[in-house]
Design a protein that fits this description.
The protein is mainly beta. It contains 1 helix and 18 strands. The strands form 3 sheets. Strands 1, 2, 3, 4, 15, 16, 17 and 18 form an 8-stranded antiparallel beta sheet that branches. Strands 6, 7, 8, 9, 10, 11, 12 and 13 form an 8-stranded mixed beta sheet that branches. The longest helix is centred in the first third of the chain and has 8 residues.
Length: 270
């Protein structure tokens, strides 16, 4: 059967890839694509005669948008929307909050070694009452580094991850501190972060309408696209989706620059 390049069944968008314009390095790949949409628009200028009758309309300022929703939360996509880069490091510190039990010897053991100003890595701890409300606040004792603290204070031995409380402290305490917890990823949103212009490859699967067993590979190549940061919403639930919208751009200095190409190959994608 001959390759029918005119009418095809679009099965799905397999992946959206973002590339750095200068280096062509892959900076993001999204594979759980829902509701993809490619739209174009143009500004129309209507020409009329002396009576106001329309003669013709000239269209210019052609633009385009590409929208999709990723089924899973993506840190790469968030970084692109925030105009930043995803950082990965094994020695990165991050905030930690713990609820820990005070043992019979009046000590409580942290999960991680706290980091910060030496000798003052943790400055305060709150007791948790039996009804789960916060009770008395204990502050760091500078006089008793790892010995028995006085009333209203606690002692900290950071290296052994140990907090020591006065004899009357029992139950649980709430502790907030910074720690290095292993391989960590960080994405930062700053007030001046502007998304960079990228190139996109949108990979698709097509089927021949006369023989749906024939599967074709397709790709939409977008040479310049900037993700829209004006209304980013991260649904922080397990059912939440991660939506993104790109504005297609032509090079300002290239009057006839293209917005995108659509390729479909008869080389089977199966």
């Amino acid at each position: 059967m001959s390759f029918n390049a005119n009418e095809l069944i679009l099965e799905k968008i397999r992946a959206v890839e973002e590339y750095d314009l200068a280096t062509n390095e892959l900076v993001g790949r999204y594979t759980q694509i829902e509701s993809p949409s490619l739209k174009t628009a143009a500004t129309g200028t209507t020409v009329t005669d002396a009576m106001g009758a329309e003669i013709t309309t000239f269209y210019n300022a052609q633009t385009g948008t590409f929208d999709f929703t990723n089924s899973l939360f993506s840190l790469d996509l968030a970084a692109s929307q925030f105009g930043t880069v995803k950082e990965i490091a094994a020695d990165m510190k991050r905030p930690v909050s713990e609820t820990i039990t005070v043992e019979s010897d009046h000590t409580a053991k942290l999960k991680y070694i706290p980091v910060g100003t030496e000798g003052a890595e943790i400055t305060s701890v709150k007791v948790i009452n039996d009804d789960n409300t916060f009770g008395k606040t204990y502050t760091l004792s500078t006089a008793a580094s790892a010995g028995t603290p006085t009333d209203g204070t606690f002692a900290l031995d950071a290296d052994s991850k140990t907090l020591t409380f006065p004899a009357d402290v029992t139950g649980r305490v709430f502790v907030r501190y910074d720690a290095v917890t292993g391989n960590t990823v960080k994405v930062t949103k700053s007030s001046d972060g502007i998304p960079k212009v990228r190139s996109l490859l949108v990979h698709a699967l097509f089927h021949d309408p006369c023989d749906t067993n024939l599967v074709y590979a397709g790709v939409i190549s977008i040479p310049r696209a900037q993700i829209d940061p004006s209304a980013v919403e991260l649904a922080l639930t397990s059912e939440g989706k991660h939506a993104a919208s790109y504005k297609l751009q032509k090079s300002y200095c290239d009057e006839n620059a293209k917005l995108f190409d659509i390729f479909v190959s008869d080389d089977s994608a199966a």
